Amino acid sequence: MSIITISRGTYSRGKDVAERLSKALNYECISREIIIEASKEFNIPEIKLVRALHDSPSILNRFTYGKERYLAFYQATFLRHLQNDNIVYHGLAGHTLVRNIPHVLKVRIIADLDYRIKEEMKREQISADQARHILVKDDQERRKWTMFVFGADIYNPELYDLTVHLVDMDVDDAVSLILHTIQFPCFQTTPESRKKLDDLVLSAQIKVALINEYPDTIVTSAGGAVNVAIRGIAGNEEKVILKVHKIADKMTGVKDVKINIIPHLVEV
Fold it and tell me: pTM score, two decimals?
């Protein structure tokens, strides 16, 4: 039992790899489903959530804490879904959300630009130059977005356990390689690795419960010991602390809560 996340670019055939993997393993294959689920659960128009998750940093900056809210909703939905185990995910930033979870095999699928250009030309009925421009721009935007949101470079090999370059290797070869890799003991779910995922889920749930009122909030959890840091609070700290305790104490798995209120800086 384990989880596979696949990071991919446009026309890299990562979707094909994910679908064949899930069929071979009898795992659930998810991608856009997380957006739909988050949209329904948190009553957010799907188009708004998609834009928040895909638009460039310059667009996101126009909305006060809009990015943080929508990402929190997406992350909570995504992580809770992973608790089901036996999942292949090929969507947005999956590898960055579960960096330290051992039973997640993080795979990067890459393909030659020439192949991707041909596929873009075929689909959009455009010239090679136009296709190249679109793909290069898309790659740059994805890289910029991940750096802006997670402080991570999608081209950094340290983010992945396995990088598969589909040149001479075809989709079936890639699937075979990943199937072999996922059998290693280090990628099997253990009680310890499940606890780490549960801690992430708990942190995400508490953040979602707080983020509308306290958007600049960081939540971490270790074994049910929860730490909440809230920035930008001006006065009435006791009321905030009581409210956070009230929310956290209702969450399953919370054993202890520590709260750090970081007030607005006052210029002198």
Answer: 0.86
